[in-house]
Automatic annotation (TrEMBL):
Name recorded for this polypeptide: MoaB/Mog domain-containing protein
Highest classification ranks of the organism: Eukaryota, Fungi, Dikarya, Ascomycota, Pezizomycotina
The organism's place on the tree of life at top rank: Eukaryota
UniProt domain MoaB/Mog: residue ranges: 51-231
GO MF, one example: FAD diphosphatase activity
Chain intervals for the UniProt region annotation (Disordered): 309-329
Pfam families: MoCF_biosynth
Compositionally biased region (Acidic residues): 315-329
UniProt-listed InterPro entries: MoaB/Mog-like_dom_sf, MoaB/Mog_dom
GO biological process, one term: flavin-containing compound metabolic process
Amino acid sequence: MYARLSQLSRHLSRPVPNYAHSAAAASRSIIRSNIMVSPEEKSKRKIHTAGCIIIGDEVLGGKTVDTNSAYLAKFCFSLGMNLKRIEVIGDDEGEIVEAARRMSDSYDFVVTSGGIGPTHDDITYQSIATAFGLKLVEHEDALKRMIRLAKPHPSQPNFKWDEPSPALEAKKRMIRLPIDTSRDEKDQVLFVNEDLWVPISVVNGNIHILPGVPRLFEKLLEGLKPRLVPRLTDPEGKGVYRLLFSTPMAESAVAPYLTELAARVEPKGIKVGSYPRWGKKRNSVTLVGRNKALLDSLIPEVEKNVQGIRVDREDQADESDDPDETNLG
């Protein structure tokens, strides 16, 4: 007993790692990074990485299903951007401020979705303005476009643009944008679709504020593409390639080979993935990378070792939809 107490005493007397010091050092590093990279630089540098912030209590509460992050993921993949993080946060100013600052510092291209409507809980613009010490400015061109392109709602038959009203004030919330008066405004407010009045507000050089409505989100994102392509690491737009294989083998059966394959090809820029398919007889294996010739050269080897075939879609080689035939392990 005394021996154990002695050991415990020695253990407790050991110096504790200074996590506070490490955190402070990390914080100073982030601050230095923000100082070194100006909004102007962020708006022009090559795009390697991307981040996404989905904003809305309705998403967190299960009322609305987020499809915008999935669309953005496919968009980034097609252009060869490495989407590193997707976060879902509520309509809370502190959460938006923290996420916007961190994402802007960490990734080359950042997209937010949601929280820019006419109601009291749409606080994305004002929160991101707060995050970077900016004021909200009523954008004249955006207002003109809204008047020209926005259709009056059937519930507002007497609404008039030239008469002050609570409804007009609510609509103007959507064109009061975070503006850095020290920078050229044309780089901060983008109109990428002639059929839409909705602008893309660009803050701190790399945060692109988009609406949460999927139809608008998708149209604006596609309209943004011509501005992004010249800044890609592969400006020809070849993007990233994905090979998909269908295998009848359990994941545990192919795991040893895939582990060896990953160790061999990941240093060459190819990622190896394995995905179970619940209720199906076949699982999926993927190879993802930029070197198409190298990827293609691996097809015969992978097909042999997973006893499968290359397919264009996961269900292409399914033999049965029998729910009793699960293939998870």
